[in-house]
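Q: Hi! First time doing this. I have a protein sequence and I read that you can turn it into a structure. Is that right? Here it is:
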Amino acid sequence: MKVLVVGNGGREHALAWKLGQSPKVDKVFVAPGNAGTAQDAENIDLAATDIPGLIQFAKEQLIDLTVIGPEAPLVAGLADAMDAEGLKVFGPSQAAAELEGSKVFCKNLLHTANIPTASYQTFRNGEDAERYIKDRYAEPNEPVHVVVKADGLAAGKGVIVCDTREEALEAIDRIASRREFGEAGNELIIEEKLIGPEASVLAITDGETILTLPAAQDHKPAHDGDTGPNTGGMGAYCPTPVVDEDLMTKIEADVLVPVVHAMKRARRPFKGILYAGLMLTPAGPKVLEFNVRFGDPECQPLLMRLKSDLFEVLEAAADGRLGEIGPLEWDERPCTCVVMASDGYPGDYDKGREISGLANADALEDVKVFHAGTELSEGQVVTNGGRVLGVTAIGNTISQAKLNAYSGVKEIRWRGAWCRKDISDKALASS
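A: Yes, that's right. Below is the predicted 3D structure, encoded as structure tokens:
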């Protein structure tokens, strides 16, 4: 079998690596890929959003399954276009991908389906949003605990948590007036700030059957102690002790099953990865957002722990026969992924900086370095993004997994490299 993975991040490297382990898979292509996927698969010089080019390639190479990694090509309708050409694809339709493509659509669907989420208001312009904040919080110095979100795709960065009126007005200005997130800010949401630990629960579904994966925890803020601006994710670990068996059952019953049914009722049947970003509040789990693909970096520790054949599972989901797949088999040991980023991220950063020590890190026991923002330049691996690497490691305990991951980090160097130092500390604190 031949598989095409679409995308160029750490998630796509992990997917290509795991799919290549299947005895049924002879060849894995990645479009466009990165320096890491070039080692574990074959890169193809096609952008993730080049729909005609990807279709032509899949036809010429007789690709048996295309796995779409990032949200942008899903929202652009790549899965629909491939399906129309008779090509087997894992990933939701354009209509179903609106669950992530529009936060307004997502919030309205959650409300209609009675799925627990934060109370919210939507706005089509910044003036109305500013007026809402000024009217609701008349005293300039009173606390204002809200989250301001751009409606559309913003690479995980269009969410601003605010605790004062000034911060809320500044967030509205950034999204709606200064257009920091481009067209993603055509609409915006202001919602109550929820309190509690966050968890990511991902599930594979064919629209009927749901296979829930072990819960993970992402680290969105840039700096230690969950401070600084939101990023695409600075690290993750799996499983997380904050989601026990009883809570997972509740999440499946109150969140995952209802959203699959709601999408079906909305005539947007969902096939692919459902990613529920949850806040575990004292009143129970509430949905912060839905994504329609594997999380990055949650994908890396999840797939490193997966023992089942990923190709078989994704193919079954694409065929609508996920019910034939038995329970997934997992390595019982926990896993931690530490993201190494370029200086300046999540703001501006330089590219093209030479990376050393990769072979030394990969040589460590129970460590795998997944590439995200890298490329090959004259045979040398160089930086090509804000989030550059996801150093991922398994250990007998979460503390051992953390130690192994940071041992890998210590081997790797480039000018301006940095990472959070506290990935998985939340698990240690709650265990």
